[in-house]
Amino acid sequence: MLGLLLPRMHLPSLLPPGHHGDTVVFLILGLLTTLAGIVLSAWRWQRVLAVFDAETRLPNLVSHYLAGQFVGNFLPSTIGGDVLRISRLSNSSDVPNTSVFASVVIERLTGWIVLPLLTLLGLLLRPSLLQLGVASQLAVVLSLGTLLLLAGIVAAAGSRRMAGRFAANEGWTRFIGAVHLGVDSLRRRPRAAAGIIGVATVYQLSPVLAAWFATRALGLHLPMMALLAFTPVVAIAQVLPLSLNGLGIREGAFVLFLGPLGVSTGQAVAVGLIVYALTLAVSLLGAPAFAVGGRSRAVSV
């Protein structure tokens, strides 16, 4: 996909004359926004861990999260970052590894629930975005399809007959049971669930804002509602296991969704690459945490 898209980029025409100073400012703002998103993610993880009565310090979770981001973005693995987070927190705290595993799964689920809702909200707040042909239709289909899939996953995780039957197991299936116990606890504690969804919503707004800064760095003046509607579905599309870290898929999705708004192919590809570069830059902060590791302790597996 990148091989098809990159030749269509004309670098000298990407930035308007005299815009270079503004570009640097917007890139710095995008970088800070991406970093703030990591902190918000760690805070969301902390609130999920509280459901399992696990007391954890936010700075430690931020360190584990950054280390996981480094692994996820610089090593050839899709879930390696989450595995590292589970391992590090299990080794450096008294939280049972089953609870840590369940907390990471539930934390991811809450983020995914928010993504399609943001897209639908953006489309509702700016109805003209529904008149963009294939881009609008695909955004609606991906959002509704994701919500239906997540509804099925949450229903299965909360069901006593499905995931719940593993809660008392001693083998590896006890991890599935732990997810059930977490989902069941959230169902009985709606205020805690609402708080986690609230933090997840604020977090998912950070990539939207970072993408908006990326467009402004290129001198584009797109409405924020357009980024709110389309950035989440780009995030949904880029996790499809079709490329390394979503390369090509993300850029192609931006071409599809931003093209009808008057953004050229080269500019849309540049937006995707800038968003990816911001993520890589912030992920580099996790290199020291990954190298140092956590305080090890004996853990029963």
Can you put this structure into words, describing what you see?
The protein has 301 residues and is mainly α. The chain has one domain (19-292). 72% of the residues lie in helices and 0% in strands. It is built from 13 helices and no strands. It has helices at residues 2-5, 11-14, 20-51, 58-74, 80-92, 97-125, 134-158, 174-188, 190-217, 224-238, 249-258, 265-283, 287-292. Helix 4 (58-74) runs antiparallel to helix 5 (80-92), helix 6 (97-125) crosses helix 9 and helix 7 crosses helix 10 (224-238). The protein is globular, with a radius of gyration of 20 Å. The model is unreliable at 295-301 (pLDDT under 50).
In percent terms, what proportion of residues is strand? under 5%
Amino-to-carboxy terminus distance: 42 Å
- Compute the gyration radius: what is it? 20 Å
H/E element order: HHHHHHHHHHHHH
Structural class: mainly alpha
Question: Which regions are unreliable across 5 or more consecutive residues at pLDDT < 50?
Answer: 295-301
